[in-house]
Structure formats: structure tokens, C-alpha cells
Amino acid sequence: MKKTLSAVALILIFTGCNEKHPAKVNNQVATDSLKKQKNIDSQMAQGERPDSEQDEESYDEVKKDYLTTYNKIQNIDRTIADGSDTLFLQCKYYCLHDSSLIVPALYDWSKKGKKEFVTHNFASQIMLIRNKDTLLNKTFKKIDFNHMLYEQLQKYAILFSPDYIGYNKTRGQLAIGYSVSIPLSDVGVPAYIVIDKEGNYKVLDEYAKIDGYKK
User: Fold this and answer.
1) Cβ of 90: how many Cβ atoms within 10 Å?
2) Which of 95, 99, 193, 199 is 20–30 Å from 181 (CA)?
3) What pTM was computed for the model?
4) CB 197 within 8 A of CB 88
5) Cα→Cα distances 213→80, 131, 194, 199, Å
6) Are the C-beta atoms of residues 160 and 178 closer than 8 Å to each other?
7) What is the dihedral of CA 140, 141, 146, 148, to 10 degrees?
8) β-pair type (101-103, 117-119)
């Protein structure tokens, strides 16, 4: 996703950055800024707009792509052999169409006028079968990740589509990765669900050591 000044500002706000900028800009910064502007002017004169000048188009594209996810179902199916055991993993990710999430205008980085964005929550149904025994059949939602989210993400984020990280034979665990993020923004964190061969699971935050997993 292409970043804008607004998106960057939001990230700074919610990571608690309070750094104060100096009142004066030194000559080197001023020179670099002038060179950058001349480069932009040159590209625009040729009818080609640089990325930094395409914020509106970028926002529209991101929003259009996001809206298409409402009617898509993503499936992950894996068969894992571990000694005498065969594990079957099924993961279904889909939109709940609940219109229950209102993202504040603060997160709108378009230039058409900031406004609230009403969207839906998503869910991820995970089933794990070992040989013929169903060990886990659970639907995960954002609320299952709330213990590791700061307030803004608890209120405005959604559970973005899963990615199969892999299986760790040493630990007898498989891992699925997610992003819990505010739609149409760069504000969010990675998160993981780790499931063992007995069907026990843990929801881990972005700082978890997810290594030794092979797809």
C-alpha cells in the first residue's frame, strides 16, 4: 500500500512518538527539497505523475480492492505427515457482512474530504483433523486477539486474511499468520494462531518467535 503523509502521521500518533521538529531547516534539507520538487515538476511536464502525487488514485485503488473482499471466501487446505500421524488442516476466511465497524474519519487519507467508513468484521474458521479425529473446530474473530491489541485496534481493526506459516515437526505445531489492522490504513500488527497435534491453540502477538515452520 502506498503511504501518504496522513497515514504516516497516524502511525506516529499511535506509537506514542512525541518528537519535536526543529523550527529551522538547514541548507542541505532545503537543497534536497528543491531538487525533489524540480524532479516532480519535470515528470509532470512529461505527463507522468510520481507516486507522491498520486495519493487520491492510490486511495481509490486500495478501497476498491478492499471492497471486493466482502464477497470472497479464502480457503487454506493442507495435509501434513508427521510420523504415523496425518494432519488435515482446513481454514476458511470470510466476511460477516455485519456493518458493525465504523472507522473514524481520522483514518481517511484521501483528499476528497475526510469521512467515516462503515465496514464489516471478518472471521476465520479453523478445523484440524488428526487421522480421523477432529481435534479443533473453532471460528476465530478479532475479539480472540483483543488481549494483545491496543485500544484503537480493538475498536477499529479487522482480522485480515490468513497465511499458512507452516508446520514445526520438533514442536508438533502448525502456525497461521494474520494481520489485525484498521481498513484502508497502515495501522495494525501481525498476529499468529499456533495449534499443536492435540488441538490446543495459542494466540500469539507480533513478537512471537515463529521459526522452524516449513510449508
Assistant:
1) 14
2) 199
3) 0.72
4) no
5) 12, 21, 11, 17
6) yes
7) 50
8) antiparallel
